[in-house]
Amino acid sequence: MNRVVSQRMFTWTELMGFVVLAALIFVVLPMTMDVFRLNLFGKYLTYAFVALGLVLCWGAGGILSLGQGVFFGLGGYCMAMFLKLEASSPENTAIQSTPGIPDFMDWNQVTYLPWWWEPFHYLPFALVAVVLVPVALSFVIGVAMFRRRVGGVYFAIITQAIAAILTILIIGQQGYTGGVNGITDLRTMLGWDIRTDDAKVILYFVNAVLLFACLFMAHFVRRSKLGRLLIAIRDREDRVRFSGYDVANFKIFVFCLGCAFAGIGGAMFTLQVGFMSPSFVGIVPSIEMVIFCAVGGRYSIFGAVYGTLLVNWAKTALSESFPELWLFAMGALFIGVVLAFPSGVAGLYNDWIETPIRKALRRSRGPVIAEPAVQQPNPAE
Amino acid sequence: MSDNDKTRGIFPPLSRRGMLLGSAALSASLFMPKGLRAQDYPTAQVNTSGLAVTDDTVTVGILHSVTGTMAISETGSVQAEKLAIDQINAQGGVLGRKIQFIQEDGASDWPTFAEKARKLLVNDKVASVMGCWTSASRKAVLPVFEQYNGMLYYPTFYEGLEQSPNVIYTGQEATQQIIAGIDWVTNEKGAKTFYLLGSDYIWPRTSNKIARKHIEDKLGLKVVGEEYYPLGHTQFNSVINKIRLRKPDVIYAIVVGGSNVAFYKQLKAAGIDMTEEKPVLLTISVTEDEIRGIGGENIEGAYACMKYFQSLQNENNDTFVAAFKDMWGSDMVIGDVTQAAYLGPWLWKLAVEKAGSFDVDKVREASPDIEFPQAPEGYVRIHENHHLWSRTRVGRAKADGQYEVVFETEDLVEPDPFPEGYQ
């Protein structure tokens, strides 16, 4: 039984999970939502990339990063720089003292395009940068931290500090980054107007396809020997090390992968929302992203998506109905989740739906050797 | 104030005699609404672009932060806008239709502003939106308003360098606020040297750029220092030491938000006594709202340059302050932006009635030259560039948290969002 599980790509429940989520994202939401709401859900789904990365890093690998906003933001900024340059053609910016450069540079008396903006004239470069820039930074952080065996709380604090540093850097260098305002008024991508309703629907589906690609990748990582090692590292790091594995390399890999997901999410965010600002980079958004993952259930890749959708939808709905009180309701929701079901929505599903069904099936079939649960959270954690 | 007055708002119903006497003096457009009935303006005629207008009501949006760091500043704007809407409704509404509003929370987060703006325009089809405070939030919603052709009434004094067909700027742009103040401090206080400092974002930087050009190029005086600190910064001791060292005649401060509290307390602790007028402190970013946080005793003697102070002595303002306190509590203070926010619904109403239509294109066309003599700050008029002609005033902070007006420009100052020679 055990061997069968490890060789098959999906168990039936996992396959069902993919099918149900695909039905929700590809059919139910587009059928029931108008373009405005669909665009909102598209935005929520970009956060799901980050939550998915956190499921791998935190849920599987035990690496809690409180700075995922950094990587989301870097991906988003790379995309925004390309779009901004396209929107700043000399004809569009004729009113400025230096036409042809982004408007915020003009406001800040920058009179030439900085050299590191130049490559962002080219879409292929920007697309590669969306993934590569976050990965490069996470690689440096990973090597510096994990090789020195910095982990747990210390790692969380350091990533949080990095989020703070990057925010200060972006805000301080407003002539080059747009400062607090961010990079706004993005219009076209290679001449294609990204603000129209049609574009929003298309971008939603592109986003959904990319998310599924990442979900599959995350699933395969979890299925592979690497995924098993990650869980082993999470639960008993020293034993894995004593068995001869280089723990740091595994951690670096999974951290970089999570950050690559975040970068893709950031880029899709910029495309769908039409701008990028430091308010996605700092400490608060980074912690919010961890909350999405925690509410969904940090051990489940589907939980990450459902959790993100649930929290963000609640945020929108509550703030529309109670503009002055909604933050209290959100606070209550988080406290409720943590107190009532610490493994999030996915844990709730496992305890109340999946396990009873399995038990019932087992009873009807007679005694079978129990299937090992795919992920068994360490209760001591 | 009696209950009766409260329901009437600042435009008490006119007696026949008052009508005869007053109509000559006041703009005729203001009396039009008295006779306007919805049935004279069929919905199909006044709304050809599918806005949320029925035979009895018209819906507008209010979009400010009521949560997050900006809530403390923006709450006053929300209150002023609600007051104006109440008063307009008490007077019969706009084209015979009562104003309803949908309030959304920008949550001090620029992307949320953009999202809520889209919701208001696309889902709710509001006829106009009163809202935003920071430049960042305005920059975030601007593309949305231009794409969906909405109309935004933006209340904050700001850096200029912008002129959107979809925005009416009811606060002052930078040159209106800055130049008169610097001229005043030069003429009245004989200032020769200036020290500029501010929070690090576009408004203080642009404002100081204009101030420096004016000081150095037009007046031939000297700037002895210019520095910026991140938003939320609370350690100003090093800059205060530099100020003491260089002994400028004027400290020109554009510190915003919570940083103000630390700045003025530390300034006082360092022994710079603003009541002695050496050096003079001139700010363009501290309204009565901020003084509530700073504490009147810490800022007493400083000068502020803006278009409105709660202590303005005129009939319009007396009625406005009384109505505001009546609605929101007697301990309320009213700052420059709050007053500018109050103008939003009124200017929109006047433009709609001049256009005879709620359609945004027609309202935009009707907006230039709209006059509003009953504004608490005094007569204002909309310029072709969508900013207001307004007076600039200098006030001196008192220990009780109010300003004493010590100077006001003789004429209305023309708004000039793209000033030549100051770029």
Automatic annotation (TrEMBL), chain A:
Q: Which GO terms describe its molecular function?
A: branched-chain amino acid transmembrane transporter activity
- Which compartment or compartments is the protein found in? Cell membrane
Q: Which InterPro entries match?
A: ABC_transp_permease, ABC_transptr_urea_perm_UrtC, LivM-like
In the record, which residues are listed under signal peptide?
Answer: none
Alphabetically sorted, this entry's keywords are: Cell membrane, Membrane, Transmembrane, Transmembrane helix
| UniProt keyword Cell inner membrane, yes or no | no
Q: Name one Pfam family in it.
A: BPD_transp_2
Membrane topology term reads: Multi-pass membrane protein
- What superkingdom heads the lineage? Bacteria
Q: Which GO terms describe its cellular component?
A: plasma membrane
Q: Does the keyword S-adenosyl-L-methionine apply?
A: no
Q: List residues traversing the bilayer.
A: 12-32, 44-66, 122-146, 153-172, 201-221, 242-269, 289-313, 325-349
Per its record, how is this protein called by name? Urea ABC transporter permease subunit UrtC
From TrEMBL, chain B:
InterPro entries according to UniProt: ABC_urea-bd_UrtA, Peripla_BP_I, TAT_signal
Signal sequence interval, chain numbering: none
Q: Name one Pfam family in it.
A: Peripla_BP_5
Q: Which intervals of the chain form a coiled coil?
A: none
Superkingdom of source: Bacteria
**Which SUPFAM superfamilies does the UniProt entry name for this protein?**
Periplasmic binding protein-like I
Record's PANTHER family?
A: ALIPHATIC AMIDASE EXPRESSION-REGULATING PROTEIN, PTHR47628
Tell me what this protein is called: Urea ABC transporter substrate-binding protein
